[in-house]
Amino acid sequence: QVVLVSGHLDSWDVGQGAMDDGGGAFISWEALSLIKDLGLRPKRTLRLVLWTGEEQGGVGAKQYYQLHKENISNFDIVMESDEGTFKPSGLGFAGSAEARDIVTEIMTLLQPINVTDVYDTAAGTDIAFWMRDGVPGASLHSDISKYFWFHHSQGDTMTVQDPNQMNLCAAVWTVVSYVIADMEEMLPR
């Protein structure tokens, strides 16, 4: 059984793609690194996917889905960060009402950093195939007030990233992915 965390590398046209979506790729990598460094071994596999080709029609996600869809019942949740890694506010979630209640409870663990909101929908080109077929999905919500200042521009460089805000995003990704991966049962469909 798999809990998938992901981001993609796509804004290569004019900038470095640090915010879109290098930040999402980084916090996904960091979540798994933190779990490993802490010596935690969840019941399910945590899988990192760094998508490619999102801007070219989601070809990387489509190929991955084609290769793994026969095991769709083993995917517990698919998570994608693609709206920058600014100050996080919560998690977008798509799934059953029962699963939403569980995710809402998990988010209370993040009260010390004031990131507890669960929004009505999850977004992510790369996880859309999975969510369409009933796999619960999650997307990071962060303060996007500056997102389009840098989106697909020459300004999308590492100087846009705030290490403290990225750490908070990584904390959200780490807690949510680990707790779901270590629960006795998969999220209800």
Automatic annotation (TrEMBL):
PANTHER family: CARBOXYPEPTIDASE Q, PROTEASE FAMILY M28 PLASMA GLUTAMATE CARBOXYPEPTIDASE-RELATED. The keyword DNA repair does not apply. It holds the Pfam family Peptidase_M28. One of its GO terms (biological process) is proteolysis. Gene3D superfamilies: Zn peptidases. The gene is Cpq. Homodimer. The monomeric form is inactive while the homodimer is active. GO terms for molecular function: carboxypeptidase activity; metal ion binding; metallodipeptidase activity. InterPro entries: CPQ (IPR039866), Peptidase_M28 (IPR007484). It comes from Polioptila caerulea (Blue-grey gnatcatcher). Belongs to the peptidase M28 family. This is Carboxypeptidase Q. Residues 1-173 form the Peptidase M28 domain. The lineage of its organism: Eukaryota, Metazoa, Chordata, Craniata, Vertebrata. It is found in: Endoplasmic reticulum; Golgi apparatus; Lysosome; Secreted. It comes from the Eukaryota. One of its GO terms (cellular component) is endoplasmic reticulum. The keyword ATP-binding does not apply. Keywords: Carboxypeptidase, Endoplasmic reticulum, Glycoprotein, Golgi apparatus, Hydrolase, Lysosome, Metal-binding, Metalloprotease, Protease, Secreted, Signal, Zinc, Zymogen.
